[in-house]
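Friendly challenge for the regulars: who can give me the structure tokens for this chain first? No prize, just bragging rights.
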Amino acid sequence: MVLVASHGEKDEAENVVDFRGNPVDRSKTGGWLAAGLILGTELSERICAMGISMNLVTYLVGDLHLSSAKSATIVTNFMGTLNLLGLLGGFLADAKLGRYLTVAIFASVTALGVGLLTSATSIPSMRPPQCDDYRRKHHQCIEANGKQLAMLYAALYTIALGGGGIKSNVSGFGSDQFDTSDPKEEKAMIFFFNRFYFAISIGSLFAVIVLVYVQDNVGRGWGYGISAGTMVVAAAILLIGTPWYRFKKPRGSPLTVIWRVLLLAWKKRSHPYPDHPSLLNEYQNAKVSHTEKFKCLDKAAIIEDNAFANENKNNSWIVSTVTEVEEVKMVLKLLPIWATCILFWTVYSQMTTFTVEQATFMNRKIGSFTVPSGSLSAFLFITILLFTSLNEKVLQRVGTGLIFSVIAMIVSAVIEQQRRETSVQKHIQISAFWLVPQYFLVGAGEAFVYVGQLEFFIREGPERMKSMSTGLFLSAISMGMFVSSMLVSIVDKITNKHWLRSNLNKGKLNNFYWLLAVLGLLNFMVFLFFAMKHQYNVQHRVKGDKELENFNDGKVEDLENNWIAEGKMEL
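First reply, four minutes later:
Bragging rights claimed.
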């Protein structure tokens, strides 16, 4: 294992203010009260997003009469766009607005989008004529036309815009309420990450149990209307908590810094390296220790003679600082892990599309009560809650989550084959609760991957690019959704629509699951390669002479274990 010093936090206190712009009084601001109020916004966003995505495919197939493949693509494109727009939200927060204002604005946008969706699903003219079982069986139902889909798309992508802005900033804004220079508050921040996902899983559970039932048995308008009301209340609570928050001032566009360093490194590519890194610009004042990785970027910090002659040493478009170069290196170090996590979210997306469709072809009765198809995903979130509650005791590993996803697809393939054969040959619908194992496995995988990835990106990314780092994490989820849409389209075309059909009894969905299992296994091997080569950033905080003695005496392992116990480092 290689230890690399991370960026310092010396100037952080000067950048933290209260809502009046004054230095914060830590006894009256931040901490769990402020973080809890912020969690409410993400809780509501999750209620909206999960209440929509987990049951949308049944509306598209059953009410709008779209094909299963097209419906799955609409859902995954919606979720993909929502997470991709996290990059925009992160950029705006880091560059100009700050996290608080960004979350407040985009929470309002989300409420507007859910309001539009309520209207789109309530107005009769926004749906095609109803279709009876005979016409449905013979594929004679009239699909929704362009005008009917237009309002639905407008609503979904307004929600995606708002949700992206919230998701990329709310965890960072919550962690801002804890001072990482204080050991006690730093431990509270690590605990916050676990409670953060625990809380939003509760919101997801509420959405798939309560809201999905309301949508199916009372009306879509009522279900989405409750979501809209929840978002309005959350935005109001966020604003009410303003006096208790700690605010970090935005430090300019992180994308500009990245672009500038890459440009200068390219322009100076023919320059020789200095004899020692201390000759690089602002080496002595760097907030991030110099590293040898991606050494070619160091050339952006080479001080040319004309920089002194023209007194342009501080002109960032002529020469970068070591701090800026190292921050770009941090972002580049995130990319391999980012790329190898994409396929997990492709697997996850099946839980919101084809697995829900599977449930409609299975026996969902408990006595006289019929469980809504979308509500079976409650087992997904129950599993997440279970495994997230163990996060304080069990070190999270993204690789474990990837393995869970591979096993989940193998189990899904076996169960789907058994379901189809039983239905076609014996004309018997097996219990929908046979889907629980795949929900359990994907839910366990998500608990490992989501929490591990989120903490990895926030802690390993540059401090002033925290929101963008979260946006980068969300873009992995986004890419997973888009990869799912792409795979569905490719498989549909290559198999001439024989694998993925609206009538699953006539398709071969199990083959699609086997394909995902094979791709997941290959992806896991690539992940292992990059994970073993990754260098972690470690915060160096001297807590006493004993720790220094351990380090100087070569007892690095003891010091590592101490850092791991405090959550400062992962294995």
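The CA atoms of residues 360 and 373 lie 6 Å apart. The chain has a mean pLDDT of 80. Your move, everyone else.
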